[in-house]
Amino acid sequence: MKPNAFNYVRAKSLDDIFSVFSEHGDEAKILAGGQSLIPTMNMRFAAPDVLIDVSDVDEMKGIQVIDNSLRIGAMSRHVDVLNSADVAEHSPLISMAMPNIAHATIRNRGTFGGSLCHADPASELPACTLALDAKFNIASATGSRTVAAADFIEGTYTTCMSENEVLVSVDVPSSTSDTVAFFDEIARRKGDYAMAGLAAKATVSDGKIANPRLVYFAVGDVALSSPSAEKILSGATITDIDTDAVCDAIASDIEPFDDLTTSGPAKLAMMKVLTRRALNAFSGNGGGS
Amino acid sequence: MTDAVAITINVNGETISQTVEPRLSLADFLRAEGLTGTHLGCEHGVCGACTVQVDGRTARGCLTLAIQCNGLEVETIEGATDKGSIVDLQEAFVEHNALQCGFCTPGMLMSVDELLRDNPSPSRDEIRDHLSGNYCRCTGYQSIVDAVEQVARQRAGGAQ
């Protein structure tokens, strides 16, 4: 399996990217880590005329703490996010999610921004960024804009970005000391696509839950939250959570799809298992895996 | 037809300059240079047989373009073997029957080499976790994990 022929440009700056876009339009695609794009091209599901390698674009690199927020450059490799002390401190949810992303060798090349732009329904980071209300910094030749996580991914493999835009970085609000994060997914083997997953967080103080977020992935076209379950949990006392009611609420909000390996009802059963684990974590009985 | 591009890659300590098509994978590039220890299995990043190291970290040779490695250092199973840096691993694989057909072995060894550099005394779970991206259809993995565990102990100065 070999890809179609294409031309290759190694961009040195955002302006380099925009100039290729202006010349080639949607026939040019961004190459970040290539761990999803290259297989797609090898199987000839995609055949862009030009690849723009952005691995030397400084504006898209690095992980910084800015005020009460973590700015993760789109070109940050998963391994660097996984090993970052700043990410561990300011965004435990993302740290917990990282080891679940594919295999070590894929994490060495794959990137934070690339995974988000790929928008695979079974991927971890869309759910994390939605649970954390992250902001996506997008640039084009005519300017930049910032998009909320809820608006960034529009469907399977589909984002809000137009063909002349590039994701530069993602801003994640820093976790507070009373925030409890939970991440877990159920896959057939370590590193396989999740059959169902959950990125969750809540603030827990004086035994009460506030601002709960439960975001499920691999169960629909996009990562899905459960507003009804979040409503039940909001203000609840951790020693007195009606777990069955929370699980019923999830089932009323989300009807998981069937995918190639797992039926919708099986996914729903897994979502309830993950939810019980998350509620245990909120109660202080151990975090996610 | 697309424009061929001149690239220079340091492969196993030796500078190789070539003109390549952009679509040429790193694995195909290496094999065309006679370094056929890097095997191509699935060619979409699943099996791990093509695992090499780029600037000291493992990479899928099939999901990395040769042109992306312009100016970088690549190490293959041939380089690691010549250097003698994994001779204990290779001996332990033989001793434990951690290979049968051998197709996965070069990729497996390149991954284990990285694991033991990052984490000199991994648990069996950590070994399995790190090797989860390398498929072996012969051994059932048990003997591979045994071999890695033994080398970790040996390198720590412990007895077998």
Key traits:
heterodimer, A: Uridine Diphospho-n-acetylenolpyruvylglucosamine Reductase, domain 2, Uridine Diphospho-n-acetylenolpyruvylglucosamine Reductase, domain 3, Enolase-like, domain 1, 5-stranded antiparallel beta sheet, 4-stranded antiparallel beta sheet, 12 helices, 33% helix, globular, B: 160 residues, alpha+beta, DNA polymerase, domain 1, 5-stranded mixed beta sheet, 36% helix, 16% strand, elongated
Please list the strands of the largest sheet of chain A in the order they lie side by side: 4-5-10-6-7
Structural class based on helices, strands and sheet pairing of chain B: alpha+beta
Which geometry of chain A do the CA atoms define? globular
Share of β-strand residues of chain B: 15-25%
SS element count, helices of chain B: 6
Specify the CATH class of the largest domain in chain A. Alpha Beta
Question: Spans of chain B with pLDDT under 50 lasting ≥5 residues?
Answer: none
CATH topology of the largest domain in chain B: Ubiquitin-like (UB roll)
Number of domains of chain A: 3
What does the main sheet of chain A amount to? 5 strands, antiparallel
